[in-house]
């Protein structure tokens, strides 16, 4: 069955409108949750553009039909947009394919758990997922030490590391003797750098198998940072990102990884 030109145009208009409304609704919802970052703002902006394109579709098409140069420019922009979407999907696929189950993790000397924020003395949903994933491995490897890593968030009474330790003990009855807090860091780079002194105190070499627990979207960049610092035998343990925030966080990380590569941070 062949579509006529008018049917094809109508399909494109409706597709842009529905996609735009979905992205706009998602971005608005995330802003209401105070998740203000590029992974939220970019889909919102694209959604507004697609809604505008759909609403003024006829006018835009008339302008394009009467201006060959403009039509060629717009066509090139659509091609670039599709290529960008393809690169984003490839990045998302890499994340999905590199998520390992706890049963696939080899014996580790230590597990470093990267911080991800606290709220009112409790782990954020994202941080709780990281702690749950770390525990799934720790319970299978009772001799492995855990290093919760994170300093004090603005407006919070306790450091991330302290909140993380309390969660591990209260939720999973992890022995405090296995937990060594790193409570000064404010970034992934510092999480890993400051944890090195704890590893040295426990006579654990940087060449030993060391697990690094972080959110699934963050594993690629965290591994690259760890490698630059001298961690030569890292095992990335990917924690699932809460569904409501998943693809916004993945999109934000897409840009963070590219910018880090451009700035030679790895």
TrEMBL record:
Classification via InterPro entries: Cell_Envelope_Assoc, DUF218, Rossmann-like_a/b/a_fold
Chain segments annotated as transmembrane: 12-32, 38-56, 77-97
Protein name per UniProt: YdcF family protein
Organism classification: Bacteria, Pseudomonadati, Pseudomonadota, Gammaproteobacteria, Moraxellales
Pfam families assigned: DUF218
Signal peptide (residue range): none
Coiled-coil segments on the chain, per record: none
Keyword presence, Transmembrane helix: yes
Keyword annotations from UniProtKB, A to Z: Membrane, Transmembrane, Transmembrane helix
CDD domains with a match to the protein in the record: YdcF-like
């Amino acid at each position: 069955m062949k579509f006529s030109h008018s049917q094809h145009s109508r399909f494109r208009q409706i597709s842009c409108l529905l996609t735009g409304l979905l992205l706009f609704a998602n971005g608005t919802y995330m802003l209401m949750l105070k998740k203000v970052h590029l992974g939220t703002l970019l889909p919102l902006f694209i959604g507004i553009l697609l809604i505008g394109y759909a609403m003024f579709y006829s006018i835009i098409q008339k302008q394009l039909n009467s201006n060959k140069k403009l039509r060629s420019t717009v066509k090139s922009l659509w091609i670039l947009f599709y290529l960008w979407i393809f690169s984003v999907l490839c990045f998302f696929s890499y994340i999905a394919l590199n998520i390992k189950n706890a049963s696939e993790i080899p014996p580790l000397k230590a597990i470093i758990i990267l911080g991800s924020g606290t709220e009112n003395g409790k782990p954020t949903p994202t941080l709780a997922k990281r702690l749950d994933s770390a525990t799934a491995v720790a319970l299978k490897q009772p001799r492995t030490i855990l290093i919760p890593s994170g300093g004090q968030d603005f407006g919070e009474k306790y450091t991330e590391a302290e909140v993380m330790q309390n969660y591990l003990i209260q939720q999973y009855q992890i022995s405090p003797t296995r937990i060594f807090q790193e409570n000064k860091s404010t970034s992934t780079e510092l999480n890993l750098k400051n944890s090195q002194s704890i590893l040295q105190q426990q006579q654990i070499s940087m060449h030993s198998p060391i697990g690094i627990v972080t959110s699934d979207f963050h594993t690629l960049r965290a591994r690259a940072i760890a490698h630059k610092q001298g961690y030569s035998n890292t095992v990335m343990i990917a924690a699932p990102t809460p569904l409501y925030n998943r693809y916004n966080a993945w999109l934000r990380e897409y840009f963070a990884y590219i910018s880090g590569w451009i700035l030679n941070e790895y």
